[in-house]
Amino acid sequence: MLLDGEEWRQFFDAFEHEAWRFEAQPTYTMPREQENIGRFVRGESKPEDHNARWHERVRGFVASGRRIGRVRIVRRPLTEYQRYQFAWGIPGNIAAGEDIRVLDVTAQDFGLPLSGQDWWMFDGARIVHLNFRPDGSQINREVYEGDPAPYRAWQRIALEHAVPFEEYVKVLGV
């Protein structure tokens, strides 16, 4: 089953305890981000309302007692998009209440599926694949109907080896 628009938002918002993302793309080509990426590259200031809608949603999830987090997979050197996210995106998401960790797979893959597919896992049971083209543009969101056990194992491995965003940035000097 494919999810888009309001159907995706309702599916996402229905989680009861935890929404967690395995985020592995080196670049995301999202039309709504292009203007801000250009601003970042040109050295302009970040808009005050940058990512405000997502921050509002995250604060709502956290206020209702739900957790939201992700592990951001990276390989050095960071892509321009990753530098943009590290500077403009991730700090605001964390301030809103999202738990974001970084797993550097430059030297080792830790046995994780690094095939170019991201996924969200909701309450340890419902999985949605985020399918992308090589350029980082999203193809679709697809509900996975199989066994969620491998995803729980990959989440455990990713969290075991990832470090909090702030720690990664400090060590890397980004």
Descriptive account of the structure:
The structure is a single chain. The protein is built from six helices and eight strands; from the N terminus they run E-H-E-H-H-E-H-E-E-E-E-H-E-H. It is an alpha+beta fold and 174 residues long. Strand 6 (126-132) and strand 7 form a beta hairpin. The radius of gyration is 16 Å and the shape is globular. It starts with a strand and ends with a helix. The mean pLDDT is 95.
What is the beta-strand fraction?
Answer: 15-25%
- Extended strand count: 8
Helical/strand content category: alpha+beta
Helicity level, as a percent range?
A: 25-40%
Main beta-sheet annotation:
8 strands, mixed
Low-confidence stretches: none
Mean pLDDT: 95
Counting H and I runs of at least 4 residues, what is the number of helices?
6
**Succession of helices and strands:** EHEHHEHEEEEHEH
* Termini gap: 39 Å
Radius of gyration: 16 Å
Strand ordering within the main sheet: 1-7-6-5-2-3-4-8
Coarse morphology:
globular
Organism: Streptomyces cheonanensis
InterPro entries: DUF6879
Protein name: DUF6879 domain-containing protein
Domain DUF6879: 6-169
List the helices and strands and how they pair.
Blueprint: E1 2-3, H1 5-13, E2 18-23, H2 34-41, H3 52-63, E3 67-74, H4 80-96, E4 99-104, E5 118-122, E6 126-132, E7 138-144, H5 149-161, E8 163-164, H6 165-172
Parallel strand pairs: 2-3, 3-4
Antiparallel strand pairs: 1-7, 2-5, 4-8, 5-6, 6-7
Protein name: DUF6879 domain-containing protein
Pfam families: DUF6879
Domain DUF6879: 6-169
